[in-house]
Design a protein that fits this description.
The complex is a heterodimer of chains A (175) and B (774). Chain A has 175 residues and is of the alpha+beta class. Helix content of chain A is 13%, strand content 31%. In chain A, the strands form four sheets. Chain A has a three-stranded antiparallel β-sheet, covered by helices on one side. Chain A has a three-stranded antiparallel β-sheet with strand order 4-5-6. Chain A has a three-stranded antiparallel β-sheet with strand order 7-8-9. Chain B has a six-stranded mixed β-sheet. A four-stranded antiparallel β-sheet of chain B has the order 1-2-3-4. The chains are: A alpha+beta (175), B alpha+beta (774).
Chain lengths: 175, 774
């Protein structure tokens, strides 16, 4: 099941030295409709690949993975900064679309009970959404809050303490 | 008799067990130099009537009271007999039902048979073990001796339950009587010690605020006597005097308010901390307890002990105790003030008080039982919830919603019933106290009026008395609320200390050896394990070399999982030993040893948290301070476990949440996460308990590849029903009824055409039939 792009895992207690992804001999090409094609070291083309971060919440600047349509891993890039600028730009564009993460600037109202109806103002404009369960609101130790709505869109509050007091009160009332 | 007893006991000082019951002592005579090795008692005769007899094992003979029968023949009569132990002598113990038998055989012929009930099982098994140890040479004699000293518990019937420390009294929390539960409440005070200064401040504030509340009625006395009455009598008294007294009254009220505010806050602060300490301590203690503690308990009951019971104590301390303390102070101080003002009127006023106290005491007993019952009913009700909510799929699949609702409703009715009974007493009691206080007021009015007429008290005094007395009885009424609250809190405290008093059956050695990183050589010698009266393992001998993979095969109940549990040290063996790199497992530090251990179980358990957190669960957080490095190791482990790609397909990859609510992962995926978890701790010893039996054949192939990577270089004990899972095993061990039936490689065992071969061919056939069917 190991992907062609990655050899068998190295010994577990000595993590692999970071191999610059560019040395692995693969490249990316921009295809039509904003899709990305991946051409591996053997010249094999994989159409419409997906680019994602392995730890989008706990390490938002951490490792990036390129995944084929069937879910197979094609390349593991850690860190992204090892790549040359054009390739990195291509990946960052792909990631930015994937990492659609509106930042909540103000909370207008939150309904009582579950599911909760939220009305917020984000950095991308006002928004209405539903949160099914209180567990979908995750408070990180660094003071940030992540909220996942019923359709899977995530919203972020980067620093709870910087939110205005009314919004904070609305959030406080939830626990 | 004591002389005869010493005849047996004293020469055997060197023997491992010298204690014989006196009854046995005067019937058995030892030869010079003969040593008693073990003894036990049996309690049934040939007709299955209860009797009492002894069996004594010495280093050369077996002596006993008349056995039930020999060789199937008629019962023996007469006095004790003895048999000389030869090389061909065997002792066999059978215990499958309520009647067990001990058979003594010589040259394969049963020469005597004794019958016993499970109440004697422990002693009988100890004798058997001692006999076996004598035959098998002196393997781990000190351990056996330890077991034997436990056998002399003839005075009280042995519990059939495993030696799991003190059992929790679930049926009647206050069964120990009022004494025990009140003592439990006092033990809670020990938790106040770290906050003693605040507690003392709180007591001082209570006293001060009580005094402050006593001032206003005292001020009414001169207000009436030297201002109002003289004014009414026509004396020219300026209104300014009234202002003085009003000012004093206001001041006292304000002081009382501020002081009781400070008091409530202080004591609530202390009691919050006591409850918090209790919670953590109870939970931490629960974590040290062995598995057998948890297997016998209902989750809901344990949860309510840690949660609601500690909270009840908190409320009791922060609300009821404060109230009670200030009430007691108020009552005492009021009595003092009343006597100070006028002893005779005070006497009349306080006369009904002892009656009320007696009443409180009388009702308490009735309420205590009622509250204990209510608390049990409540725990039962929460248990129904804890049972059904995790099993909701089964409930729905079998369309048993109505049944579950009925079950809950029944439990709820029992709560209702228990509360109703309490309320009957309660509802009668409250108004009764009110009646007493009305009568008390009446008495004071009558006596006071009479004394005013006779001129021995003033109107002001009477006013003060009436004000005091109405408060006095008001306080008594609220003191009575203290009774049920105390009862409830005492019951809760008892339930908490029940847990805190439980000793782990798998105890840390007095001077534990820290094994560090073990090589992984496991030597199992003459291993016996008993659960209650049932013996599950009868003498297992097995040595596993470092890095070797052993496959355990056998039918359900053959002891496979028990053996694995013993290697994990979830339980300790009844006799015999397990040695890791030459050290007895019981001498190793438990956590130190388990750091070397990896477990993959049939039902992979994921905690509520992210996938990354679940994989890193076994990893000491301080070991890797660098989160980047930890992440790399997590990814490497997930790759090796074949979990990497399905993790990437989750919405937040490694940061996706799983656990109780994260039902989005399939059984095979969960299993691969648990394999990654085991891989990350890089264990030296690996236990795979039916790791692949819950998944389909295709998933099994993926998991199998992951397991092959996991097994490499580690000492592995794998249990599997599907023999194909064990194809990588160096040796297969076939267990049958707690004994090793066969051992060898797959090919050897096939060639031997024994139990393994039969099992293998049966599975092959089933697989072929399944394939043909598709």
């Amino acid at each position: 099941m190991t992907s062609p792009g990655h050899p068998l895992p190295p010994a577990l207690h000595s993590p692999s030295p970071r191999t610059p992804a560019t040395l692995a001999g693969w490249r990316l090409e921009r295809a039509s409709h904003g899709r990305l094609d991946f051409i591996d070291a053997a010249g094999q083309r994989h159409g419409d690949v997906d680019v994602l971060r392995a730890f989008p919440v706990s390490a938002p600047a951490g490792p990036v993975v390129i995944v084929a349509t069937d879910g197979a891993e094609l390349a593991w890039i850690d860190p992204l900064s090892d790549l040359d600028a054009p390739l990195r730009g291509l990946l960052e564009t792909a990631l930015s679309q994937r990492e659609f993460l509106p930042v909540i600037e103000r909370i207008e109202s939150v309904s009582d009970g579950e599911p909760m109806e939220w009305s917020v103002v984000t950095d991308r404009g006002p928004r209405w959404f539903t949160v099914t369960h209180i567990d979908d609101i995750v408070y990180a130790p660094d003071g940030s809050v992540s909220i996942t709505d019923s359709v899977g869109v995530r919203y972020a509050i980067p620093q709870l303490s910087r939110l205005d007091s009314r919004s904070r009160r609305l959030l406080d009332r939830l626990d | 008799m004591s002389e005869l007893k010493s005849r047996i006991a004293s020469p055997s000082a060197g023997a491992s067990n010298g204690s014989l019951s006196p009854g046995a002592g005067d019937r058995f005579e030892l030869e010079p130099g003969e040593k008693v090795v073990a003894s036990c008692r049996f309690d049934l005769d040939a007709n299955l009537r209860f009797t009492d007899g002894s069996i004594v094992l010495t280093d050369r003979r077996l002596m006993a009271d008349p056995p039930a029968s020999a060789d199937g023949g008629p019962a023996f009569d007469g006095g004790p007999r003895s048999w000389r132990l030869g090389p061909e002598t065997t002792i066999d113990v059978h215990l499958r039902s309520a009647v067990g038998r001990i058979e003594l055989a010589q040259q394969g012929q049963v020469v005597a048979r004794w019958l016993f009930t499970p109440a004697r099982a422990k002693g009988v098994h100890a004798l058997e073990d001692a006999f076996d140890a004598r035959v098998h040479g002196q393997t781990s004699q000190s351990r056996d001796a330890e077991t034997e000293t436990d056998t002399d518990t003839d005075e009280q019937p042995e519990s059939v339950a495993p030696a799991g420390g003190k059992s929790l009294s679930e049926d009647e929390p206050a069964a120990g009587g009022m004494g025990t539960s009140w003592r439990a409440l006092f033990r809670v005070l020990a938790f106040a010690r770290p906050h003693a200064s605040m507690a003392i401040l709180g007591i001082f504030l209570t006293l001060a605020s009580t005094v402050a509340t006593l001032v206003p009625p005292y001020l009414t006395m001169p207000l009436v006597d030297s201002v109002l009455i003289p004014k009414q009598a026509g004396e020219p008294i300026p209104f300014a005097h009234v202002w003085w007294y009003l000012g004093g009254l206001a001041l006292a009220a304000t002081a009382a308010w501020l002081l009781s505010w400070a008091r409530s806050w202080t004591l609530a602060w202390v009691s919050e901390r006591i409850a918090a300490d209790l919670r953590v301590k109870t939970y931490a203690h629960m974590q040290t307890l062995s598995l057998d503690f948890f297997s016998g308990k209902r989750t809901g009951d344990l949860m309510s002990r840690v949660g609601s019971d500690t909270d009840r104590i908190n409320i009791f301390l922060s609300v009821n105790v404060i109230e009670f303390a200030s009430n007691v102070m108020l009552v005492v101080l009021t009595a003092v003030v009343l006597i100070w003002i006028n002893p005779w009127l005070a006497l009349v006023t306080l006369a009904p008080f002892p009656l009320v106290v007696w009443l409180v005491y009388a009702v308490r007993t009735g309420l205590r039982r009622g509250f204990a019952r209510a608390s049990v009913a409540w725990a039962d009700m929460t248990s129904v919830l804890a049972d059904t909510i995790p099993g909701i799929r089964v409930v729905k699949a079998f369309a048993q919603e109505a049944r579950e609702v009925a079950r809950f409703s029944d439990a709820n009715d029992r709560v209702l019933d228990a509360n109703d009974r309490v309320n009957v007493v309660w509802a009668f009691f409250g108004p009764l106290v009110s009646l007493f206080s009305e009568i008390g007021l009446l008495v004071v009015w009558a006596a006071g009026a009479w004394m005013v007429f006779s001129g021995s008290v003033t109107v002001g005094m009477l006013t003060a008395f009436l004000t005091y007395i109405s408060r006095f009885y008001g306080r008594i009424e609220s003191m009575i609320h203290m009774v049920p609250a105390t009862q409830r809190a005492a019951t809760s405290a008892q339930r908490i200390f029940d847990i805190l008093d439980c000793q782990p059956t798998v105890a840390e050695a007095a001077r534990p050896i820290n094994p560090g990183r073990v090589r992984g050589r496991i030597e199992i010698s003459n291993l016996h394990f008993r659960y209650g009266a049932r013996e599950i393992l009868h003498g297992i001998d097995l040595t596993i070399e470092p890095g070797e993979m052993i496959g355990l095969v056998g039918t359900s109940g053959s002891g496979k999982s028990t053996l694995a549990n013993l290697v994990c040290r979830f339980y300790d063996p009844s006799s015999g030993s397990i040695k890791i790199d030459g050290n007895d497992l019981r001498d190793l530090s438990i956590t130190g040893y388990r750091r070397n251990l990896g477990c993959v179980l049939q039902e992979p358990f994921l905690f509520f948290g992210t996938i990354a957190e679940n994989i890193a669960y076994g990893c000491p957080t301080d070991a890797t301070s660098d989160p980047d490095e930890l992440r790399q190791r997590i990814v490497a482990a997930a790759r090796a476990a074949g979990a990497h790609e399905f993790i990437l397909a989750q919405p937040l990859a490694y940061d996706s949440r799983v656990g109780e609510r994260g039902g989005s992962l399939s059984g095979g995926e969960r299993q691969r996460l648990s394999i990654a978890r085991a891989l990350l701790v890089d264990p030296r010893i690996l236990v795979l308990d039916e790791a692949t039996s819950a998944v389909d054949a295709e998933t099994e192939a993926i998991i199998q590849a992951a397991i092959d990577r996991l097994v490499a270089g580690r000492t592995t004990i794998a249990i599997a029903h599907r023999l194909s899972t064990l194809r990588r095993a160096n040796r297969l061990v076939v267990l049958d009824h707690g004994r090793i039936a066969e051992m060898g490689t797959h090919d050897d065992l096939l060639a031997a055409e024994g139990a393994y071969a039969r099992l293998y061919h049966a599975q092959q056939k089933a697989a072929e039939e399944a394939a043909a069917g598709v």
